[in-house]
């Protein structure tokens, strides 16, 4: 580009009381001027388009705390602007919001593309691949998930343009065109993130109205690896696309689920000390793979003080371990079961909270562990985070079909599974999301607790006598 303009405006102040990593949110907008006209045959080519991508330099932090930038070409794309037609002076509408860290050097790279648009067909035309159902009486429609084979969508060309058109339905069939946007299978394959939020633009309105920006935004949520949209991976916690990403401004899905459920059930624990275990990681210093490691790094004493202590151990573990598959459930289930097996007089009841992205590698072993634990004083809560399919988790939840292993059925249903995405408030209110999750995920615990006590003939201890202040005579009722 000949000239470009980058406007950076701080849109959030660092709050030292609520953030663990000092950072400020920065909003970036980009404009270009006097771009080179690569078309030597015509001064204005209506099929020429421009779009721009913003990339972040990849860095590695070594144990001594020194930040070392990798090779100069090691950039990761952070986002991409909309496409602007037929201009050498594009003003891009899409904004980029980055975390700005005062103490780090954050290199940005801006890549501008000028190219001929690709159509879904070889001749540049488009073919309808899918038409959604009509969602009535709302300006914030949510359409049902659907599946399209990759071959039918783009014939295996991951960069082929996919166009999405949005219409306002009319009973007489004269549906009003709201707007459109373009993407590709490669873009969709990034998974659920800010990268797959698109501005719906009506080209006619944009040409007539100077202040027109868009006709709304459209969020695409990829959900399945065997169809159009592959799963978003747990990934590097340092990257915003990771489900474990540690933003200084808001909790990730794992932390929200932990805090939502933990802050309620901790009130039923006398000493507020909780063992916190992780699974699916390589541990320092030798890279040993573990599915039953202490989050606080102390295998002899994995207990954390309250849910806040568990949260801190979780955050610290992400800095020291390397996330790694496969993902096995049975070790942590068996871990808690060993404790539960030693206390059968009704004085203690154990609740195991498992937070997962839906991937499970030891299904048969997990079933057997659950069947074995069904006769013990324990319950298992599984919260699924992210956009994955949770068929395996639903199978572990015995609401409809009692779980079995090797022909032996569980004595009682001890598993409750919920996908967190079903409880996320669409206005972005995380407090409400967490409250909804906790309410539903804990709904079955009382009945599971009572079913164990009743089948064992365990009755509540007599209520203690009412408290009498010192110096006051005891009251006797006749």
TrEMBL record:
Superkingdom of source: Eukaryota
InterPro entries documented for this protein: C2_dom (IPR000008), C2_domain_sf (IPR035892), C2B_Copine (IPR037768), Copine (IPR045052), Copine_C (IPR010734), VWF_A (IPR002035), vWFA_dom_sf (IPR036465)
Gene assigned in the entry: CPNE8
GO molecular function per UniProt: calcium-dependent phospholipid binding; metal ion binding
Organism this protein belongs to: Sparus aurata
Segments forming domain C2: 1-198
GO cellular component: plasma membrane
Protein name: Copine 8
Annotated keywords: Calcium, Metal-binding, Repeat
Protein family per UniProt: Belongs to the copine family.
One Pfam match: C2
Heme keyword on record: no
Stretches with biased composition (Pro residues): 461-472
Annotated segments matching region Disordered: 459-478
GO BP annotations listed: cellular response to calcium ion
